Amino acid sequence: MFEENELLSGSLNKLLEEDMNHVTKPICTRFPPEPNGYLHIGSAYAIHINYMLAKKYNGYFNLRFDDTNPLKEDIEFVNAIIEDINWLEYSPGERIFYGSDYSDEIFQAAVTLIKNGKAYVCELTPEEITEYRGTLTEPGKNSPYRTRTLDENLELFEKMKNGEFPTSSMVLRAKMDMKSPNINLRDPILYRIIHAHHYRTGEKWCIYPMYDFAHPIQDAIEGITYSLCSIEFKDHRPLYEWVLTNLNIKNAPKQREFGRVNLTGVVTSKRYLRELVAGGFVDGWDDPRLPTIRGLRRRGFTSESIRKFVDQIGIVRHQSTVDYAMLESSLRNNLKLRVNNVMAILNPLKVVITNYPDDQSEFLSIENNVENPELGQREVSFLKALYIEKEDFMEAPVKGFKRLSPGAEVRLKGAYFIKCNEVIKDEQTGDITELRCTYDEETKSGTGFTSRKVKGTIHWVSALHGVKAEIHLFDKLFLDENLLKDNEKEWIEKVNPHSRLIHKDCIVEPSVKNAKVEDKFQFIRHGYFCVDKNSKEENLVFNRIVSLKDSWRNEVK
């Protein structure tokens, strides 16, 4: 499925290679999503790094849900994450784990720290804890509860577990260094009280560990060798190592960081994605305009194109931004030799060929893919009435216009030369409603040489056999690519009101009539399209995945 790549080249590879000289067990990595939302393109990048490292060294890859916050998590997200990872073909198989299943072990680890004088129960309010923590330039100060005895801390922590205190009334904190230049080490919170139903453990627990405490313990239980995470967790590494050291974990896992990758014009923050969904700015987590895996899949991206995209990025050591065009290019390269080229009319203009017999029709052979002859040919019906794109006709053509105009000739793709002789207009609006044309029988495609030449070729669809369709075109979801730097604006000021344009009265050639959801095509000149999940036999719906890289002149032959 995957080819050998240079994913682990550079400084991180050297670091891992040095580490592995001291590793005495199989390599094991993990992807630890919190089930409070759907995976996005950034998630795919993180999954790819962990999966490929395990694969390179014939190791193991775990999917572990970081489900230690009952206020945000749901089985809906668990199931969606598993489905998306399998669709991306990074399947963990049976190696799917849940952090909540280790609740007893994590609780006992906290008890061990208390007994060793490394943790204490604190009753400062959340606001007071923040105040006592200090700032980047000022040290923190000790909590007045820091000097509690071991017995008192053990008793209070047990009562916390038994539900004897209200939510947020007290926490368990690590006893570290309130003067540390790293704020993460200023007596961080290890456990907090949350009285809420947990989707997996029910009401068994009312105290839940913080990620920074639970994570290294979960890694150790699973035999993880490398906790690979994004660069924002670098300052958390000393806490990760402190937990493992003070719990006397042998052959402890190692945390190593890679750079976070952003895409131009795309938001991958779960918080922002939730706001967009909840606010109705998009149709749901699978809206084709979102960078969620569900959204990209519905839009028409293939799992192969996403994997290739993240593989091309490689491992970066610092935060970086990648042009969205790189993702689109990966998709084009993946589809260009695999899908059929079909003719679709987004803005139909009727053409009647006056010298074509009324009772005559014929089938013309057209190649399915101009770049891949192996996909064969298809038969397309041709008769007197057909549709072309409105933009392919200009009554008063500008200089350089090479398509149809009064008295001018063009070739219909795979068919004949036609000449426009008459323009029919609506008497009230003056809009062009029909063109009357003649065809030259001697210019049929594929039948030999004709001395006459035309400069333009346009696509068309039979008026009788064409299939009606609804076609969705997409633009950037946001008006400003730097929206994360501008937190003052409301979403309504950031979202592009024209990010989706719907064409309802489109005509597509009949070869797509039996297309199924997620089937993909190249619509000549318009780009690559995918059948949407809302598509029905009587009303086909297509999403444009991406426009064509080359101009239409190179696509139509």
From TrEMBL:
Residues 457-532 form the tRNA synthetases class I (E and Q) anti-codon binding domain. Gene3D superfamilies: HUPs (3.40.50.620), Ribosomal Protein L25, Chain P (2.40.240.10). It comes from the Bacteria. It is an enzyme of class 6 (ligase). Residues 342-440 form the Glutamyl/glutaminyl-tRNA synthetase class Ib anti-codon binding domain. Its EC number is 6.1.1.18. Keywords: Aminoacyl-tRNA synthetase, ATP-binding, Cytoplasm, Ligase, Nucleotide-binding, Protein biosynthesis. SUPFAM superfamilies: Nucleotidylyl transferase, Ribosomal protein L25-like. One of its GO terms (biological process) is glutaminyl-tRNA aminoacylation. GO terms for cellular component: cytosol. Belongs to the class-I aminoacyl-tRNA synthetase family. This is Glutamine--tRNA ligase. It comes from Pseudoneobacillus rhizosphaerae. The gene is glnS_2.
